[in-house]
Structures are given as structure tokens and as C-alpha cells.
Write a structure and sequence with these properties.
Helix content is 33%, strand content 32%. By secondary structure, the protein is of the alpha/beta class. α1 packs antiparallel against α2 and α2 crosses α3. The longest helix is centred in the first third of the chain and has 19 residues. The protein binds 1-O-pyrophosphono-5-O-phosphono-alpha-D-ribofuranose and uracil.
Amino acid sequence: MGNVIIMDHPLIKHKIGIIRDARTGTKEFREMISEIAMLECYESTRNLKTEEVEIETPLTATTVERLAGKKLAIVPILRAGLGMVSGLQTLIPSAKIGHIGMYRDPETLKPVEYYCKLPADIEEREVFVVDPMLATGGSACDAISQLKDHGCRHIRFLCIIAAPVGLEKLKTEHPDVDIVVGALDDHLNEIGYIVPGLGDAGDRIFGTM
Ligand code: PRP
Ligand code: URA
């Protein structure tokens, strides 16, 4: 059974407050998304395996721990997921990066896939799927299904803002996936936007409003 973590941390609360503010410009918005993603990555990697190795410090021989187990991959859901990648890469620079391109059909709100490029050995990796917004949950669920079709078995999903309905859908369809949420919001409006939310994450990251 996957874990669900709703981040409860003053730094994340402060930074999410900044990105919710409609007056926040593209540069600061992008910086905050990356920093929140880094903090979420720190939390979600708490259970990675380590192994003991012997090394020499300048003073003596000692035993240290280093990461062991599966290699890692980061998979942003385009476009907005791209904004979270740098934050994760800061902490896990050796992770390979895959991309899944999806947009929501504005009428049906169903995700439409337009791109998929994954590392060749993706099924051997622990995968961090990232997308700032979990609204209906359609995009995240489809992206994760696609990764499972490629053989992935160890998947985490990191988002910044979630709607209750999207979180429930993700937990139901992919109960094995660990989920990290920056803030759980109130509801979706009639056109599928998260309220209070932050608007269109892709547009705010890339300045395409
Ligand atoms: C946004 C967001 C998610 C999706 C969430 O992408 O980044 O991928 O909507 O909605 P859902 O949970 O209802 O599927 P969007 O379709 O706006 O595409 P973009 O990132 O290219 O702007
Ligand atoms: N996608 C966004 O970018 N924002 C929302 O509120 C919902 C979906």
C-alpha cells in the first residue's frame, strides 16, 4: 500500500502562499515551484535504501552510508511538470529523466497524450512522476498506467496542489504508488480548476498567459 503524505511544513506553506498569489511573476513562480519540489523530494526519499561502505576520512577509517538499491528516474508530465525537475535534480543529480506529454481536453477534461520518451531501463528504476497540479487526477493516473505498461513497479507521485477528487482517484487506481502533496485544496470548479489553487500552472511557469 502506498503512503500519502500531505506536507505540513512552514517552508512549504510559505512558498505555496507565494505561488497562489496572482501578483507573483513568472521568475519567482518558477523558483518557488522548483524549491517546493526539492523539499518534497527530500521527504519522499526518506525510505530509500542505503548500504554501509568503508572509507578513510583525513583522520581515520570509518563506515559511511551511501544510497543503494535501484537507480532513480524523474518523469515530469509536460508541460507543468518540467518546472519541478530542477528541484529533484538538485538532490538526485544522477537520476535519468523521462518525459510524458499530456494536455487536458478543455471540453471533456480527459488527458490527451502527445509524447512519451523514457530511459531504456525505466523498468529497473524507482520513478518519481512530477506534476504540480492533481485536479481530476486523469493525467496522473494515465501517466502512471503508461509507466506500469513499460514495466515500472516502484513509482512515487509528487504534486504541489491537489483537489480531493483527484487524490481519491489516484489512491484508488494506483494504491501501490507513494504520493506527496504540497497542499490539499478545497474543490474543483465547473471548468476543472483547483480552488483556491494557483490558476494554470503551465501558463504561470512558462509565461504563456
Ligand atoms: C495541467 C497539469 C496537469 C493536469 C491536471 O496540465 O499540469 O497535467 O492539468 O489536471 P487533471 O488532474 O484534471 O488531469 P494541462 O493540461 O493544463 O497542460 P499543460 O501543463 O501543458 O499546460
Ligand atoms: N491544471 C492547472 O494548471 N490548474 C488547475 O487548477 C487544474 C489543472
